[in-house]
From TrEMBL:
One of its GO terms (molecular function) is manganese ion binding. InterPro entries: Aminopep_P_N, Creatin/AminoP/Spt16_N, Creatinase/aminopeptidase-like, Pept_M24, Peptidase_M24B_aminopep-P_CS, X-Pro_dipept-like. It catalyses: Release of any N-terminal amino acid, including proline, that is linked to proline, even from a dipeptide or tripeptide. This is Xaa-Pro aminopeptidase. Keywords: Aminopeptidase, Hydrolase, Manganese, Metal-binding, Protease. It holds the Pfam family Peptidase_M24. CDD domains: Prolidase. It comes from Brasilonema sennae CENA114. GO terms for cellular component: cytosol. The keyword Iron-sulfur does not apply. Belongs to the peptidase M24B family. Its EC number is 3.4.11.9. SMART domains: AMP_N (SM01011).
Length: 459
């Protein structure tokens, strides 16, 4: 943990809580959360502090809470137990932590119960903490329940701050992006010497760990890219395979990167792989070129759908007019997910609040197959960071479904499609900041062109 006083951190945190105070006129209490045990209490899963807490403290403290009221920051946490230094080393005490984060007051945890009146909160994921939240606030505070009343007001206020990244956040997000890019380059360079997926994953995560970061989600490194959130790494790598790697770094204070590249295990795309790769890249490039303030994110999604449908018509896989094909969801047979999501302290930023952050007030998710997985539906504003991640997948559960076969009998040239069997899954994902005039691709240092990718694999 970074434990030095920095005037810029203190300034950033002061500015965030002042802006919160301009939006709400009641106190907010935010908990950091605690560790979860594996099979016995002393052996715990890696700790990750709650993101709303991190936003206002900048430090991944455990078993702590803060009370934000009219721009003031009060820290509640206990000093380390006397025997803690033996097992965990010397830790700063409450007063030292308070100084680092610029807290106005620091008190033991037991005193928090005196300060809960009229306070709003946001549920933390771990059961020990949400039970404590519920007991102290004398109402159910549950992670899967939509917030109500002042909790809802607090959630909306925090969303409005976290949607638009300040300079402190952007400095961290750029660090996460830079390490994520290096991890992908290392993965490509390691592939021709690797026998199984796990070895490529290890090369990528090695870079992240060596930079004293963690992964911002469970890495996807697989020759079965059609399994969207594949968490298996045992498959052997064969020369004709594509490897899809969706891997992101997270900085020590919790800010995330999220990047996907797809490359040929043998160093050269086959002609069928290259044809499909170039369609996905065309969708990726067309969407990124349109990222600007005022643009509706859903329109970017629909643009990607149309570019993919057009490309598949040109290849002879789909038949018909691309717009009409998008209307009947034919593109979604191959591109079933959304074009991306918000990125920040969480890889799907603020998804602990359901769609409250992702969807503009008054909008709800469509139940249309091609739109139901769209995680973001807002007009873009300067300071938002979003991913752009189109893909093409051949998912047997979709393509072999009897209803799909009959519904799209005349739309898909099934026989021609069978020639593309060496393309299981391709995704290309970058992290794109909306700027005052246009955009800044934070992960642009990682090439996307097929020939550049081949060079990186064969380096
Ligand atoms: N890494 C998960 C995602 O791209 O949404
Ligand atoms: Mn993503
Ligand atoms: Mn991703």
């Amino acid at each position: 943990m970074i434990l030095k006083t920095s005037s810029s951190l203190i300034e950033t945190l002061r500015d965030r809580r002042q802006r919160l105070a301009n939006l709400i006129d009641f106190p907010a209490i935010l908990w950091s959360g605690t560790t979860s045990p594996r099979n016995f209490p002393a052996n715990v899963f890696p700790f990750r502090a709650n993101s709303h807490f991190l936003y206002f403290t900048g430090l991944p403290l455990r078993n702590a809470a803060i009370r934000l009221s009219a721009g003031k920051l009060e820290l509640f946490m206990d000093d380390p137990q006397p025997d803690s230094a033996l097992w965990h080393g010397e830790m700063p005490d409450r007063e030292e932590i308070a100084q680092i984060i610029g807290a106005d007051v620091a008190k033991p945890m037991a005193e928090l119960e005196l300060w809960t009146e009229e306070a709003a909160t946001i549920a933390v994921q771990d059961a020990a903490t949400w039970t404590q939240q519920s007991q102290l606030l004398n109402r159910w505070v549950l992670p899967l329940k939509s917030p109500q009343d002042i909790d809802l007001e607090l959630a909306k206020a925090i969303i409005s701050l976290r949607l638009i990244h300040d300079d402190g956040a952007l400095a961290e997000l750029r660090k996460a992006a830079a390490v994520t890019v290096e991890a992908h380059k290392a993965g490509m360079a390691a592939t021709t010497h690797a026998q199984i997926e796990a070895q490529v994953r290890a090369a990528m995560e090695q870079v992240i760990i060596a930079n004293n970061m963690t992964t911002s989600y469970n890495s996807i490194v697989t020759v079965h890219g059609e399994v969207l959130h594949n968490e298996q790494y045992h498959h052997s790598l064969q020369p004709g395979d594509l490897i899809l790697a969706d891997v992101g770094a997270e900085t020590e204070t919790g800010w995330a990167g999220d990047v996907t590249r797809t490359w040929p295990v043998g160093g050269k795309f086959s002609s069928t792989q290259r044809d499909i790769y170039d369609i996905v890249l065309a969708a990726h490039d067309a969407c990124i070129a349109k990222v600007s303030p005022g643009v509706e994110y859903q329109d970017l999604h629909l643009l990607a759908c149309t570019v993919i449908a057009e490309g598949l018509v040109n290849l002879g896989i789909l038949q018909g007019n691309p717009q009409d094909l998008v209307e009947i969801n034919a593109h979604a047979l191959f591109f079933p997910h959304g074009i991306g999501h918000l990125l920040g302290l969480d890889v799907h930023d603020m998804e602990d609040l359901g769609d409250l952050a992702g969807y503009e007030e008054g909008r709800t998710r469509s139940n249309h197959f091609g739109l139901s997985y769209l995680r973001l539906n807002r007009p873009l504003r300067p300071g938002m960071l979003v991913t752009i991640e189109p893909g093409f997948y051949q998912v047997p559960a979709i393509l072999n479904h009897a209803n799909v076969r009959s519904q799209y009998q005349d739309v898909v040239n099934w026989e021609h499609l069978s020639q593309f069997a060496d393309v299981r899954g391709i995704r290309i994902e970058d992290d794109v900041l909306v700027t005052q005039e246009s955009r800044d691709v934070l992960t642009a240092a990682l090439p996307t062109q097929a020939s550049q990718i081949e060079d990186l694999v064969c380096r």
